[in-house]
Every structure is written in C-alpha cells, then in structure tokens.
Amino acid sequence: MSKLPKGFLWGGAVAAHQLEGGSDADGKGVSIADVMTAGANGVDRKITDGVCPGENYPNHEAIDFYHRYHEDVALFAELGLTCFRTSIAWTRIFPNGDETTPNEAGLKFYDDLFDDLLAHGIEPVVTLSHFEMPYHLVKVYGGWRDRRVIDFFTHFAATVFERYQHKVKYWMTFNEINNQNGLNKWAFFTNSGVLLKADEDPEKVLYQVGHYELVASAKAVQIGHAINPAMQIGCMIAVWPTYPASSDPRDVLKAERFAQANYWFSDVHVWGTYPNWLKRYQAKQQFDLDITAADLETLAAGTVDYIGLSYYASGAIKAAANEPANFMTRSADLNVDNPHLQATEWGWPIDPVGLRYSLNWLTDRYHLPLFIVENGMGAPDKVEADGQIHDPYRVDYLKRHIEQLALAVDEDGVDLMGYTPWGVIDLVSAGTGQMEKRYGFIYVDKDDQGRGTLDRSKKDSFYWYQKVIATNGEQL
Ligand code: BGP
C-alpha cells in the first residue's frame, strides 16, 4: 500500500523563460529575463538596459522548448508525469504588458502546449508570474512600484484564465514572491522589476511593491473563481526553514522573526490580512505606504486555495550581541553553518528532514493543502563515452526528500497535493544563468557558453523517477 494518496500528482517543474527560448518568436516582447546576462558559480548575472549587442543572454535560446516541446512532452509522458508545472510568459501574451489586446500567436502556443500535455494525460500546472514580467513595464512604470501594474497584471490573468479555463485547473499567481524579503538587488528585479535607487530605503520599497502584488494576486483569485469556480488558484512561496543556532532564547527569537519576516506574504495570501507584528513594525517605521481600505477588502476577498512551495535547503541563525528592540531578520543574516548538514557544490545545505518539518509547520499555520512545486539539487553531469549519464547524487537527494514528504503525509496527516521536482529537463539556472547547474532527468546538450546540439538524452535518474511514479512513491 502506498503511503501517498491515489491521484497524488507526480510532475516536473520549469518556468517559461528558463526553457522556451524563442525570445522574439511570434511577436513576443522583451522580458526582464531577456536582459540578464550569463553569470557563473559565485558570479552574479548582469542586468543590462535593454538587450545590448555583444552580451550573452542565455534565456534567449534557452533549450528551445518553444520549437521542440512536442518531442519533450513525449519524453515527459514516457517518464510517467501526471502533471507538468510551467509558467505563461507574460510577454508572449502582452509583449509590452500594458496593451489591451492580447497577441493571438502567443495564446495559440499555450493552447497547443496544453493540448499536447492533456493528450498524454499530463495535467498542466501554471504560474502566472515567474521572474519574467515585460521589460517595458520596468522602463515606463518602474515595475511593481506603480499601482497601475496591478491592472495590467489582472488583465493578463483574466485573459489566460478565460482562454485556458477548460485546460488548466491548477494555477499559482507569483513565483517565490517572498524572495525579495532578502532585499537583494537580484530578487527585487526578478520578482518585481525593480531597480533600486541609491537614496531609497529598500524596506519601504519591499512593503510597497509586495502590497501591490498581493492586491493583484487577490484580484486574480477572485477573477479566476468568477470565470470558473473549479479552478484552484494558489500562491507560491520559497520555503527555507531557519533554525536557531543554539537553545539560547535570543537565537530562538531571532529565528522566529526570520519565519515571520519570510512568511508575511503567505500570511496575507492565506489569511487575507496582514500579521500584527508587521502592521506595528510598518507603523513605527513610518513607511507611509499606499495601502487603501479598498485594498484591504480585496485582500480579504481573494484568499488562495492552496499553497505552492519550493523547498531546496535550510539555514541557521544566531542573534547579534546587541539586537535592537525592533530587530528584523533577513536571509542575508543567515550567518551560521549547520554542522549537521552537507551542502551542494553551489553551497545550498541539503536537509531532507527540513522538508517534513516545513510541511508540518505550514499545515499548522495555514490549514490548507500544500503542493511542493520545486525541489532539487543543481549539479554538473558528465556524459560518458557511451552516452550514458550516471547521476546517483540526484537520485539520492530526491529519494531522501520523497521519504520525508511521505512521512509527512502518512504519519503527520499533511494534505499534500503533489510533487514536481525542479527542472525535469535541464534548463537555464535562474540564479546564475548557467546550463551546467543541472536539475533534469533529461539531459540537454548545451554548455555555459551556449555550445551544443540541444539534443536530449535520458539520465539514470530518468529511469529511477519513472519507477517512483509508477509505484506512487513506494519504490525509491
Ligand atoms: C527557484 C526558482 C526557479 C529556479 C530554482 C533553482 O528560486 O523558482 O526559477 O531556477 O530556484 O534555482 P537556480 O536556477 O538558481 O539553481
């Protein structure tokens, strides 16, 4: 007997900008991902002012899924996927973001993709905004700093809900909306299309753009439910549990503040209201935010149906010697190595038990179904002379996480809808722009310099995951 319920969704996750390529095909506009250059392990990607000649933009071609999706979907079917998580590139539908009429060629692409998936018995799971807003909205409106972007986004959401309502049941609004809590430049740009100015307070920017996004999400939920009440519309948060470095109560309090500061987005998504600590903090800091009474009603009326989450790693934290009374905790403060855990080559601590811990914690806090829509380990792979790819490290990582999610379901009663490991097929890394930080079960012949045939081949992990799905998680 499987520990996981019948109908548990087994899938793989990607985002449009990281695999589609076709960056100017069929009327697509320039997205924020299109102006980010390739970085490397430990080397940041550059954000350029538009597409500049001579730069290397890995997302422009990515793995050319736009032209090869048919053969890739056949591989997903062979793998046995019952769902596939992707995003709709906003710039294929509204190239600049502020048009009123959508681009029919862009809409048609997703019709064809979803039809293809459904014909293979694969349920599409769709994120509306996954690090790929139109660059035009950045230039003209300053990204999510501008309230008008709420209407552009909800118009986009309404257009695709209407069009795909009978093809897509599971939706999410903003991918890893809470990444920007870390106040780092990269997350502000990818989450919100915001380029910070030297003289502004990043915290104030965070709370303002975050508020507009939450209002847009709540409106989208209401619009989607009005179009078709059968559609399930969730949020999507990055879960990165953070443990106190010791049993010193100050460390424990510091870790608790990290959780509060990291999950206020999901608090609002789920509760429809701001948590008290944050209202107090914002008032005391005198941020003077544009939050209207009508917004608060919208938030209350547009709560989500489920929580989508990514889980990769955990952190540990220690209080500073002299924490001020209004101390805050950001991911940049994760200042302690956890001696109980090993890390990936990119320095992400590997913590399978942290997944069970997080699923319990989220269930207790929110009482909603959960959906693990990203999990995995980026690693370089080696192609042997005979063309095989042996990736026991990937199998080991995923196996240990599936064991823990099964315990959370079977022992702890967590309501878990499904599991879609990140990068079912190798794609461009969001963080570094690399190809060789690989997550896939399917290898793509392309390197960090953009060289390769783009041919696909199955890694050992492909056959392993095929068995996992066929036995509903029994044979790991
Ligand atoms: C999440 C993003 C994905 C993704 C993944 C892995 O933050 O939602 O888009 O890429 O992390 O990160 P990376 O690509 O940097 O290895």
Automatic annotation (TrEMBL):
Any GO MF annotation of the entry: 6-phospho-beta-glucosidase activity
Catalytic residues in the record: E374
Annotated EC: 3.2.1.86
Keywords on record: Glycosidase, Hydrolase
Enzyme class: hydrolase
Gene3D superfamilies, sorted: Glycosidases
One Pfam family linked to the record: Glyco_hydro_1
Family: Belongs to the glycosyl hydrolase 1 family.
Name of the protein in question: 6-phospho-beta-glucosidase
Organism from which the protein derives: Lactiplantibacillus nangangensis
Phylogenetic classification of the source organism: Bacteria, Bacillati, Bacillota, Bacilli, Lactobacillales
